[in-house]
Amino acid sequence: MILEIGKLPTHLLEQNILSKIQPQRKEILVGAGVGEDCSVIDFGEEICVLSTDPITGAIDSIGKLAIHISCNDVASNGVEPLGILLTILAPENSNIEDISQVLNDAKKIARALNVEIIGGHTEVTTAVNRMVVSTTCIGKGKKRHMITSNGAKYGDDVIMTKWAGLEGTAILARDKKRELEDVIDEEKLQEAMNFMEDISAVQEGILAGKVGVTAMHDVTEGGILGALWELAEASQVGVEIQEEQIPLKKVTREICQHFRIDPLGLISSGVMVMTTNHTEKLLAKFKEKGLQATVIGKVIEGKSVIVRNGKKIPLQPPKSDELFKVI
User: CATH number, domain at 111?
Assistant: First the structure.
């Protein structure tokens, strides 16, 4: 069976991977699962939260992205990231300056997030044809405050931060700049490139954890619709999403129209989805900190749907990210 580029389809992931690695030890509070961003280990009153991710869909700024995506995962459990293990796999004929640039970019972002790069691995290999960076992030928190992707309750509001397609827009603007210069004006293209500065969701995740949410999930491959499906699946509930309420920047829409891809299926690191019954308090806290958050739907019984032009359309499991149709 030939697979598409990107994450494994959910049914194949469950059948061939997750079914073989279910937790056996009582210390493992959260193991691998659809929609779960992290694993969680019980350390008494405290928990250790871990997440690992590679960067495979970008060329520019991969050191920055590598730190952000793993830290965002840990923050989706409402805890602060502490340390990062960083692996760099460089293709044949790489030079030391390229590797140093990846590390310098990673170090800069880690320092800004108060996260330590505590180890890893670096090598040149014929196994890759371009630079691949993988990170494992470690965080800790109080067990009683633990948040996962599987706690959404019927009647909760569904909230998303920032706007759909954030990371994918930044990647396309940078990696496809020459092509886009002919169709997007310079000011808009620069705006899209600057989205790279909005890819951290750590502040939002930690704040949401303090205020109180029932479930939280960061938006990566598969875009906002994929993340919503995963959260609902993990919680064994449905969600009803109002498409017109999903924030979307004009430049994202224009770039996606040019490449004929769906912005709602575009990788969106920097965006967090969460469910809560403390909506007014949470939105007020976000506004107080200058953070964007929008109510986009409700947790419901039954199947997940997106309401588009007044019509309810079933929400589908995430497929290969729209980014891979372009890069």
Answer: 3.30.1330.10
291-306 pLDDT tens trace: 999 999 999 999 999 9
Q: Which two tokens stand for residue 196?
A: 């790279």
| Range of the structural domain that residue 57 is part of | 27-145
In a domain, 16, yes or no: no
How many angstroms separate the CA atoms of 106 and 87, rounded? 11
Distance from C-alpha of 121 to C-alpha of 38, rounded to nearest angstrom: 21
* Tens-place pLDDT, residues 163-179: 999 999 999 999 999 99
